[in-house]
Structure formats: C-alpha cells, structure tokens
C-alpha cells in the first residue's frame, strides 16, 4: 500500500471514532482508557484539584494608581483590594525581617558552639602525650 491509501484509512478510522463519540453519552471528546499498570482512568483533566503553582501575577487594580505627586505626597488607596495588598506586603516584610533575625541568632549560636568545641578539642590535644621524635630543638 502506498502512503495515500494509509492516510485515507487513518482518516476513515478517525471519522468513525468521532461518530461513535458524538452519541448521547458524549464525554467531552476525550476518550477514556484504563492504564494497565495502575488500573486508573486516564485522559481527563482534573478540574477539581487546585493548581500546583500559581505564578506571581498581580492584578493592575491591586497595584494602585500609576501617578505620583510632584511634592512627594503619597498616593491614596482607591480600592479595598489595594489596601489589603499593601497590608499583606507589610506583613510579609515584617515576617521576613523576623525570620532573618532568627537566622542571624542561630548562626551566632552555631559559631559559638563551634568555637567552644574547637577549644575543648585543643585542650584535649594538649593533654595527650606527644611523640618526642617528631619535633626538633628549634620548635621548643
């Protein structure tokens, strides 16, 4: 068979499957199949699950007016959404600063514990007997 007849056969099979799917029990044009390994249906998009990641898209109405006063006065909020977004940004900034303070405190505690551990190890090494043949007279 040549390529043209194969294309016609494929087209005919696609048309037949479209006719079968256009019956009274139409399922949205998505044919369901069962995965052999898991036994679950495949082929449908799950609308009921929330998206895994939502990008940082900000609505222009949440940002505020795109003007500023010449004398430096602040622009007033024109909607409740702008006010809520501003409060949320302030709350997030305060949380970030508090978490950074906690990180700095933990870093200082870790450095102090590390210095104390090194001092204890040096004291232990000073008490241990040392081999006499490894040092020269100049090192004393």
Automatic annotation (TrEMBL):
Pfam families: MRPL52. It comes from the Eukaryota. Residues 113-140 are annotated as: Disordered. Transmembrane segments: none annotated. Keywords: Mitochondrion, Ribonucleoprotein, Ribosomal protein, Transit peptide. One of its GO terms (molecular function) is structural constituent of ribosome. GO terms for cellular component: mitochondrial large ribosomal subunit. Residues 113-122 have a biased composition (Basic and acidic residues). Belongs to the mitochondrion-specific ribosomal protein mL52 family. This is Large ribosomal subunit protein mL52.
């Amino acid at each position: 068979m040549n390529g043209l007849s194969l294309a016609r056969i494929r087209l005919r099979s696609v048309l037949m499957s479209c006719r079968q799917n256009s019956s009274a029990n139409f399922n949205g044009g998505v044919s369901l199949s069962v995965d052999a390994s898991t036994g679950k249906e495949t082929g449908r998009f799950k609308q009921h699950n929330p998206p895994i990641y939502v990008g940082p898209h900000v609505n222009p109405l949440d940002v505020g007016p795109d003007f500023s006063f010449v004398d430096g006065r602040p622009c007033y909020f024109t909607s409740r959404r702008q006010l809520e977004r501003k409060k949320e940004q302030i709350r997030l900034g305060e949380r970030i600063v508090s978490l950074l303070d906690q990180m700095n405190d933990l870093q200082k505690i870790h450095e102090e514990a590390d210095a104390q551990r090194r001092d204890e190890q040096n004291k232990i090494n000073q008490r241990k007997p040392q081999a006499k043949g490894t040092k020269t007279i100049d090192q004393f």
